[in-house]
Design goal:
The complex is a heterodimer.
Chain A (H helix, E strand, L loop, with lengths): L4 E7 L2 E8 L3 E6 L10 H6 L3 E6 L16 H14 L5 E6 L1 H12 L4 E7 L19 H8 L3 H12 L3 H18 L9 H4 L7 E6 L8 H9 L3 E6 L6 H4 L1 H16 L1
Parallel strand pairs in A: 3-4, 3-5, 5-6, 6-7, 7-8
Antiparallel strand pairs in A: 1-2, 2-4
Chain B lengths: L1 E5 L29 H21 L3 E4 L13 H9 L6 E7 L8 H13 L4 E5 L5 H6 L6 H17 L4 E4 L4 E5 L13 E5 L3 H7 L7 E5 L3 H18 L9 E9 L3 H19 L4 H4 L7 H8 L2 H4 L5 H6 L3 E4 L1 H15 L3 E5 L7 H21 L13
Parallel strand pairs in B: 1-2, 1-11, 2-3, 3-4, 4-7, 7-8, 8-9, 9-10, 9-11
Antiparallel strand pairs in B: 5-6
Classes of the chains: A alpha/beta, B alpha/beta.
Chain lengths: ~260, ~400
């Protein structure tokens, strides 16, 4: 295993930090509301085939929290700039939850540098009659149990949350605050995104845990109808975070999809 | 000191067993728990209680804003203040406060407070609050912009009251091409502004600023905490801003119950004050502090105290910690005079109805407080305090 290389980039007045590892076609990972900052097993697996690039979004983790950051569109423009700045010609974009929403907001603006989109239970739209879990109001332990289908994995997360030191708590609060900034109301979606999803013509893969309690599986069907070029992989016995809960199936689905998109 | 009768107007008929099913009477408690017939009776009863305060000679009566809960039935304190305006004669009517920053158009509140200033012939005090964290769930306002919107809404409202209109206002959160509030308020330059808070360095830094010198009103906390924040106000005025603050820049809201003897007071108040703290004021941490509502520094200090927040509180704990003044008129008088010496405030706001306290006991409490405690308090004034007072 090669250690991931920490990276820092500055776009405009905002410096962001993250990791880079592996070689191959560039793959940019966009994390969800919980934040980035960890080099995770699924990234390690993907780095066998790709050059994996994973930043903390502006307002998350060690990255700057710029005053201009007010909405999800700011993050989309930031990443479009960042990818250009990295000199990446075409990237595979992979996003989880809010990260998937950022990816979609990028793609409706420009797919010039986007090879494929892989969206793991993305936020971004609202479907009537399909409420999302309130990620802000639940106490952390209850929230952990709503994230995972496997209670043992939730237990591990609860243990980690309880053991957080002050610095980790401060980062968690920063992440929650930025998540609220961009997604408090309308909750986890942009009413104006839906109409422009027709512009996203690049190969798109939706990956969803069947037991997702945060953004239920019904959203996958809605996205499939709205996105012109999207396939769906449902992962069994899995909650909102397939990349953590079913790492093997997640990586497998991703690699197969990108292989398929090449041919 | 000045004595203000503060009423929260709770839904005192709340079925207290609701906690078997719900973790709070805020945000998530279904409004099917509210009975319209009882609700109507309560509004009229509570208005009578505030009007009684005016008749007894309280310097002011106070109302406030909370949304979607059983804790307080005044989502619009302006409505209650309007109902009081022509039924009261001398008492100030303090709205403690209106949550200007929760509104997408704070000018509607500026207009309403200005109207009230006319209806009361200049007896309005405008409290400005951010609203408690739960309000951000109920209203949809984004807690991450809470401080910024509060301050910007304040600037907008004060300008609308003091600067000749029409003028443009372009802020970060509020944008108006025409600010031209009719009517302009009666009081000049504008109604007094108070800042109710449960303790916040940011609020104090802002309120104590020489451009504002607003009255900081401290609520609920143990006496040591109240003292820390009032000392902080004096210190900040002295050291950050170079002036000596006056005692009338400080106020203290305190739950109080007066009866014939200490023993009777304790017995009559017990279940109601405990219901107030444990059933009406039970806000889970995430509801109380949504993300961004507190600055990172405040979040850090609050988190370290997290366990204490959710503890059940007994009447003995509340009395020992100075959160509840309970006893005979003599006892309560002594407690409150002692608090004034310790804390150096000039405004005291007894909260004489709390939780499930019924009509007869509330009336007795208001009358005994008004006749046997208040006159003494109105004759005392805060000792000269300076910033050198030790910070506990």
């Amino acid at each position: 295993m090669t250690a991931p290389q920490p990276i820092k980039r500055q776009v405009g007045d905002c410096a962001v930090s993250g990791f880079r590892a592996g070689s191959g076609e560039p793959l940019v990972y966009l994390h969800g509301a919980g934040g980035g900052g960890d080099w995770l097993p699924f990234m390690e697996s993907l780095s066998q085939n790709f050059e994996v690039i994973a930043f903390n979004h502006p307002g998350f983790g060690e990255s700057d929290d710029p005053a201009w950051l007010r909405g999800i569109d700011d993050l989309a423009y930031f990443y479009l700039e960042l990818i250009e700045d990295l000199g990446v010609d075409k990237a595979h974009i992979v996003g989880s939850s809010i990260g998937g929403w950022i990816a979609l907001e990028m793609a409706i603006r420009s797919t010039e540098r986007i090879a494929t989109l892989s969206l793991s239970a993305p936020a971004g739209i609202h479907v009537r009659g399909l409420p999302k879990a309130d990620i802000f109001i639940l106490p952390p332990d209850q929230f952990a149990y709503s994230l995972f289908h496997d209670k043992a994995m939730a237990d591990v997360l609860v243990g980690r949350l309880q053991a957080q030191n002050e610095a980790e708590q401060a980062v968690a609060y920063k992440n929650r605050t930025t998540s609220a900034k961009v997604s408090w109301q309308p909750y986890l979606y942009n009413p104006r995104l839906r109409n422009w999803l027709q512009r996203v013509r690049v190969p798109t893969s939706l990956i969803w845990g069947r037991e997702d309690c945060v953004i239920p599986l019904g959203y996958a069907t809605a996205f499939q109808e709205l996105l012109p070029n999207a396939s769906l992989t449902v992962i069994e016995e899995c909650g909102h975070l397939p990349h953590l809960e079913k790492e093997g199936a997640f990586v497998g689905a991703l690699v197969d999809f990108i292989d398929g998109a090449r041919s | 000191m000045k004595v203000f009768l503060f009423h929260l107007m709770p839904y005192s008929y709340l079925d207290l067993d609701y906690t078997d099913k719900y973790n709070s009477c805020w945000v998530v408690l279904p409004n099917s728990y509210f009975d319209e017939t009882k609700g109507m009776e309560l509004y009229h009863r509570y208005l009578d209680e505030l009007e009684l305060g005016d008749q007894l000679g309280f310097d002011g009566v106070c109302v406030n804003e909370h949304h979607q809960n059983a804790y307080g039935l005044m989502p619009s304190p302006v409505v209650i203040a309007a109902a009081l305006s022509r039924r009261t004669e001398q008492a100030k009517i303090a709205i403690l406060g209106s949550a200007f920053g929760l509104r997408d158009n704070p000018l509607t509140l500026a207009e309403e407070h200005a109207m009230l200033d006319h209806l009361t012939k200049g007896r309005i005090i405008t409290g400005m609050v951010r609203g408690v964290g739960a309000e951000y769930y109920s209203s949809g306002a984004n807690p991450a912009y809470s401080h910024a919107r509060f301050q910007e809404a304040h600037d907008l409202v004060v300008q609308s009251w003091t600067k000749p209109g029409p003028f443009e206002f372009e802020g970060s959160h509020y944008h108006f091409r025409y600010v031209n509030v009719w009517p302009r308020p009666v009081q000049k330059p504008h109604p007094p502004i108070w800042c109710p808070s449960q303790g916040s360095r940011e609020t104090i830094l802002w309120a104590a600023h020489p451009d504002r010198k607003y009255t900081y009103l401290h609520t609920y906390s143990p006496i040591g905490v109240a003292k820390r924040y009032m000392d902080m106000y004096r210190e900040i005025a002295e050291e950050e801003y170079g002036y000596t603050s006056k005692p009338d820049q400080l106020g203290w809201a305190v739950l109080s119950y007066v009866a014939e003897t200490d023993e009777i007071a304790y017995r009559e108040a017990k279940e109601h004050i405990e219901a107030f703290f444990n059933k009406f004021l039970n806000l889970p941490f995430e509801m109380l502090f949504p993300p961004g509502y507190l600055t990172p520094a405040s979040m850090k200090s609050v988190s370290s105290n997290k366990k204490h927040l959710s503890e059940e509180k007994t009447i003995d704990f509340l009395i020992e910690n100075g959160m509840f003044a309970c006893g005979s008129p003599e006892t309560v008088r002594q407690i409150l005079e002692e608090r004034q010496k310790q804390l150096g405030f000039e405004n005291i706001l007894p909260m004489l109805q709390f939780g499930t306290l019924p009509k007869d006991l509330t009336r007795k409490n208001i009358e005994m407080f008004g006749r046997e405690v208040m006159p003494h308090l109105q004759r005392t004034s805060a000792p000269k305090q300076t910033a050198e007072v030790s910070v506990a």
